[in-house]
Amino acid sequence: MNTENILKHLRVLWRTDRIIADLRMRHLLFGLGLRAFAALIAAFGLLMLELSAYFALVQVWSAISAAAILGAINFAIAAVLFVIAARPPAGRELELATEIHSSAIDALQLEARALQSQVSGMIHHPLNGVLPLLIVPLITIIIRSLKKPATPAAATAPATEQK
Known about the structure:
Distance between the termini: 69 Å
Structural class: mainly alpha
Number of helices: 5
Number of domains: 1
Order of helices and strands: HHHHH
């Protein structure tokens, strides 16, 4: 487990989430704009159909057929715009961002599993984590105690025996 790797994966995850959100927001705004434009054209189509009904009452067929055809064309244009606006976002950018996002999630899960195994190892065997830190100081203490000269009492004892 490495905290740098965790931070790196979190940064990648955050950036890909921002990219995905940005791409989806652009798609939603584009679709909303097209739907609004289609609604405007549909309103003009409805106005033309109402105008053609008015002309049907007032005049003979020539003005009626022109207004009815124009209204039908406006409805057809609005229908095409609604179909275009309803398309799902298709793009390599969104696919790439989604792929990077999933790989960052996988890497974070791997790091979390490693951290979990280390923590559970420390809980079950606490000396395993502390022992490597204590070995070097203990060895130095033992070596220093072996290198120490004999105490002065032991050094004076052989001198008194010689007399």
